[in-house]
Specification:
alpha/beta, five-stranded parallel beta sheet, seven-stranded mixed beta sheet, Aminopeptidase, single chain, 647 residues, 15% strand
């Protein structure tokens, strides 16, 4: 960066921050619309997110833009304001009646969670008397609650802007700004930070050192960040409770009691829920992802036996709930939790990202089928090439997939098929955004006599169902189940949509059912089914996706005792043991090929294998070809499928 002759340190700091600012394009645009009166009925903007999520940087960038447009701007740090008298003094520095080009001004309160005793005076006395031309931005760790959400005047005056984590693309952009271009290092940044801005910044400092693995969480830098978060948790008992909560994907009072093997009192549980980084989820409560991962890995490094004991207890707890589900509870919710504790890195990568969803499911009817048709038209018009990266912290694995524009449109049903699906009683569900737009859909056919003719004639299902004998069909429809025709989302690279599509798959996994699917023959779709426990059906393929794209069928049989066998296999799934028992395949692999095969089973990319073994990617590909030849498979998916069958 060029240093100007009269540049101050403040100027340089501002320029550096601007040059490293990534992501948040949507949020910046929203704040610009907000202060330009697009949201004139909500003059208070609450930017909220946990510590280190970039609230201050975002607002300061937005205020810089507002200043350039002629707005009068004033900022206050609530950490430096102890009481009402100090607040009054600070507010006198801001000329409330000053005029500018727009006749508007913006007042920014940062770190509002530190407001303490003067918050009530600020809300009930000061705010009502200021001119309506003044817009107020409040940055806080948690969203404004209590009277802010109860009293009508404030409920309708506050616009909530919750900051999401940065995407993999954002992280790659940030890394390149710091001259980090190696794919291996960018992936590790993604795994360590999970899109948390402060963790990303700290990780970048360590990326080229030998410390850049899970041990970075033991460095003084990260321990300082952890200590900052844990200021809210001063006593030892609460910290132990928080550690247990961080082991779980989601928690409630009963789960924590089971995990700790001692009663968690209502008072202790209420204190836990008051922490600013604890959030309400679809199935209980959870700790914000980045903070949870940091505490979780710190516990694993400091006390591995205690961590493993927590994991085992969690898996056993969920097993009992899955075998004896409470009345009215959907099995897939418990299944999602037990999958999180199995150690399967690909499942954790797909499903750990979020425990809450901003999307809802709406059933399609004959009256609303036109909405699905409109979505399909839009989906085809806006299709593009997709690059998908997902990973998880415990093993540090990143999984990469690619779907071309043409591939993403294969299998989408036409209008005639949609009508037929409704006629036979298929379940068609729309994945809806908060604004009412459709983000995806699913179509699944029940294994009933009413649907048999469709299943026997449809190009995506006939190869399987037309071959069933009358006896086989009788037993199949007698116990029930589903043929998953399609689960589609508008953008597979969107982490929250991937989570929701995975959750839709789980919703069909019910006791005493047979679930059958024949997805697009791409690793992204096939890997998910194989790692969920589906088995590839031998010698049956369909050509619904095109002549050059034979697609296999996968089935998960949970009828009778096989349901308990499935659950037991999940609970006893041990990643390390599964990966290292390659001798059970009876193949004569060399020492180097065995290492690569172990990495392959862990989900390593070719580039990551090369970096770990200090060889070229071309060498890795040669070893993979030899492994596939010796194991009599054609590709990675077939190798994984064969390993799963043998295990």
């Amino acid at each position: 960066m060029d240093i100007q002759l009269h540049e101050t340190w403040a100027d340089r700091k501002e320029a550096l921050e601007a040059s490293y600012f990534v992501g948040r394009t949507t949020e910046l645009a929203l704040i610009s619309k907000w202060h330009n009166e697009t949201y004139k009925h909500t003059p208070i903007l609450n930017v909220n997110g946990p510590a280190g999520s970039g609230k201050t940087s975002l607002v300061q960038m937005a205020l810089k833009n507002a200043k350039s447009e002629g707005f009068l701007v004033h900022s206050l740090d609530c950490r430096s304001i102890a009481d009402i008298s100090e607040l009054r003094h600070s507010l006198t520095q801001f000329p409330l009646n000053s005029q500018n080009r727009h006749g508007q001004a913006i007042l920014f309160f940062d770190h509002f969670e530190e407001s303490g005793l003067w918050e009530n005076w600020f809300r009930e006395t000061w705010l009502p008397q200021i001119p309506t031309s003044i817009r107020v931005i409040i940055a806080s760790r948690s969203r404004l609650d209590g009277p802010w959400r109860i009293q009508a005047v404030w409920k309708h005056s506050v616009y909530l802007l919750s900051l999401p984590l940065l995407s993999f693309t954002n992280i790659a952009e940030y890394a390149k700004k710091h001259h980090i271009t190696e794919t291996y290092h960018i992936e590790k940044l993604w795994i360590i930070s999970k899109g948390h801005p402060l963790t990303l910044s700290l990780s970048t400092e360590l990326v080229l050192t030998s410390k850049f693995d899970n041990s970075v969480f033991e460095t003084e830098t990260f321990q300082a960040v952890l200590s900052n978060w844990l200021k809210e948790v001063p006593d030892e008992d609460m910290r132990k409770l928080l550690e247990a909560a961080c082991v779980l994907r989601s928690f409630d009072q009963d789960k924590l009691t089971a995990l700790l093997a001692s009663e968690v009192t209502s008072a202790m549980f209420e204190r836990l829920l008051c922490l600013t980084f604890v959030i309400k989820t679809d199935d209980g409560w959870g700790v914000h992802e980045s903070i949870r991962d940091l505490i979780r890995l710190a516990l694993k490094a400091r006390s591995p036996d205690r961590f493993e004991a927590f994991e085992r207890k969690a898996a056993i707890y969920y097993k009992s709930k899955l075998l004896n589900p409470p009345a009215g509870q959907r099995a897939y919710r418990v299944l999602g939790d037990i999958l999180y504790h199995t150690g399967n890195p690909l499942i954790r990568a797909h499903y750990h990202c979020s425990r809450t969803s901003s999307h809802s499911l709406v059933r399609v009817t004959e009256e609303s089928v036109h909405e699905l048709q409109s979505y399909l038209l839009r989906r085809k018009a806006h299709a593009k090439n997709y690059v998908i990266s997902c990973g998880e912290n415990d093993t540090g694995h990143v999984f990469h997939y690619q779907i071309s524009r043409e591939e993403s449109m294969l299998g989408l049903p036409e209008e005639e098929e949609l009508i037929e699906l409704l006629t036979i009683g298929a379940e068609l569900l729309l994945l809806m955004k908060d604004d009412g737009a459709i983000a995806g859909f699913s179509a699944s056919v029940p294994l009933t006599d009413n649907a048999r003719l469709y299943l026997m004639n449809n190009s995506y299902s006939s190869a399987y169902f037309a071959k069933l004998t009358e006896s086989e069909w009788y037993h199949l429809q007698r116990t029930g189940g589903w043929f998953i025709r399609i689960i589609d989302i508008e953008d597979p690279s969107d982490e929250s949509l991937r989570h929701d599509s995975f959750r839709m798959k789980l919703s069909y996994i019910q006791p005493d059912a047979m679930i059958i699917a024949s997805p697009l023959p791409l690793p992204f779709y096939e890997d998910a089914l194989l790692n969920l426990g589906f088995v590839e059906v031998d010698h049956i393929q369909q050509l619904g996706y095109g002549e050059g794209r034979p697609a296999s069928f996968y089935q998960l049989d949970l009828r009778g005792k096989q349901n308990e066998d499935f659950i037991n296999k999940l609970v006893t799934w041990d990643a390390v043991q599964q990966y290292t028992e390659l001798h059970s395949m009876g193949e004569n692999l060399t020492k180097q090929e065995t290492k690569i095969a172990e990495m392959l089973l862990k989900g390593f990319s070719n580039e990551e294998m090369a970096a770990q073994l200090f060889v070229s990617v071309i060498t890795v590909k040669k070893h993979l070809s030899a492994i596939y030849r010796k194991t009599n498979v054609q590709n990675r998916v077939q190798f994984l499928a064969k390993r799963l069958r043998l295990s």
